Amino acid sequence: MEKLIACVQKRPDAICRLICFPWAGAGTAHLAKWGRLFNDAIEVYCIRLPGRETRLEEPFAKDMTSAVNEITSVLLKALKEKPFAFFGHR
Question: What phi and psi, each to the nearest 5 degrees, are found at residue 49?
């Protein structure tokens, strides 16, 4: 999970999670800081995509399906634990 998710401010007692997807070409640095700005009720997860940041040595996802499959396989347990919301750019 640590490879795919950046969580700067872990809040195990949070009532919900905000799962952030970086804009094209960006990493988690900007969005991960949000974890310090919200109160204890919200835990911020930022998706770290292959080919960026600590995953720089990995090839970029070949298509959206492979990216979604990786993300859902890692997040599935977290999504079942508590309510969540997605934030991303189009």
Answer: -85, 155
Q: Are 47 and 5 in contact (CB under 8 A)?
A: yes
Q: What is the pTM of this model?
A: 0.83
DSSP string, the chain: -TTTEE-SS--TT-SEEEEE-PPTT--SHHHHTHHHHS-TTEEEEEE--TTSGGGTTSPPPSSHHHHHHHHHHHHHHHHHHS-EEEE---
* Domain residue spans of the chain: 5-87
Cα pseudo-dihedral 63, 65, 67, 71, rounded to 10: 180
- Here the tokens at position 86 are 């997605």
What pLDDT, in 10s, does the model give residues 18-45? Answer: 999 888 777 787 787 888 888 899 999 9
